[in-house]
Amino acid sequence: MPYKYLTEVRGYELDSFGHVNNATYLNYTEQARWNILKESGFLNDFIKSGMFLVVVETTIRYVRELKMFDSIEITTTLKQEPPYLIFYQEIFNKTTNEKSAKAKTKTLLINKERITQDLPPELIHIIK
Amino acid sequence: MPYKYLTEVRGYELDSFGHVNNATYLNYTEQARWNILKESGFLNDFIKSGMFLVVVETTIRYVRELKMFDSIEITTTLKQEPPYLIFYQEIFNKTTNEKSAKAKTKTLLINKERITQDLPPELIHIIK
Amino acid sequence: MPYKYLTEVRGYELDSFGHVNNATYLNYTEQARWNILKESGFLNDFIKSGMFLVVVETTIRYVRELKMFDSIEITTTLKQEPPYLIFYQEIFNKTTNEKSAKAKTKTLLINKERITQDLPPELIHIIK
Amino acid sequence: MPYKYLTEVRGYELDSFGHVNNATYLNYTEQARWNILKESGFLNDFIKSGMFLVVVETTIRYVRELKMFDSIEITTTLKQEPPYLIFYQEIFNKTTNEKSAKAKTKTLLINKERITQDLPPELIHIIK
Asked: Which one in A64, B86, B115, D53 has a CA-CA gap of 20 to 30 Å to B52?
């Protein structure tokens, strides 16, 4: 079952063409990834531990533009392909009922010493 | 009665000190101003008209830092001091129950020809 | 011969890990694309015409992190694969002398009526 | 003699009105402040020390809009009004030869333990 994160487009995120700038879509997908950590109950420990998810590669396909106050839902599924943790995400526009974007983000979990590490036991359950 | 807009801090909005960057607070207050237009039912007409609110001056006092996923409420009251439209806004952190910032934003309403204009009849009621 | 655009990392672009956030790399590549239009002498006419480049797909591989004040050079080559205009870009860190990222951005040129169009004669020469 | 920092407006910084969004001006002034630390030769030590400059209050007056590729120079003078360190900054548009904005930023220097502290000896000379 995918994770879901709901938010809305903010007015200052529009660029000079009156729609959301393409880089901002990556902000949305990042926020949805953070939200998985939050829902896992492990966010604060994660931040304190000094671990972080390094983004190694992103591919994003833009399907439809987004406009101010569009209500968007980002759905996320995760897969482990050691050493990578891969996020498959879709941005769905609930205001227009259309898919807006589809992204694949390949990440590496790194510890404070910048060494690749496995998902800690506290986070294993986020893969489902 | 002030306007209220609710949103939450996004992870990518944190700067290298682990809290929301000071410029981002202005983004929040802008979004709350857009939301007044949205609630007025006049947002789309406003955008099509080519009118815009030019920010002439902002004063913001930062009271407390904001952290990832903090739930924030921006309250706004408006005053007309012709030719200016002035927004008094507060950012309140509902996660910590503390005031986070207080801002005053002086704006001018400009039409497509870049001439200062009065609030159109459709928007007069937003002053209350 | 590729296009080159030089800029430097700004302090507020660092995220809570102390390095440039991954979405910001797309900002850099966008700016380098705008700069091609600027160097073509056609930027102002382009903006007035209402044309725009819709980003259809981006793939970006992150090779090395970027830090505050790193001097970066974005090199760009373009290819036409009708109806697409494809940008191959690399971000090179001149401060550390290392490649930082490599991106491919697939775009469509759209006119004011949102119809795909060929490169106008004034821009044909940017493909070289 | 004021500090000077030179940069240019990036295309993605324009908002839906085709000019630089008002919050982005604060980004420019922040970057100019970082550059003072860089020129002092103390930037890396500063970052490692865990010290940071907390922005307590900002007042910014917007004089003229900024457009894509405008070349801007931010001049900064500092004053100590213990416990505050105050930055007076102007954004000057060298492309149009007009002043674009004027800002006053009141800051507190805080150490790792979040306690207000005086300028360390290595930084005293930045006040001139």
From this structure: A64
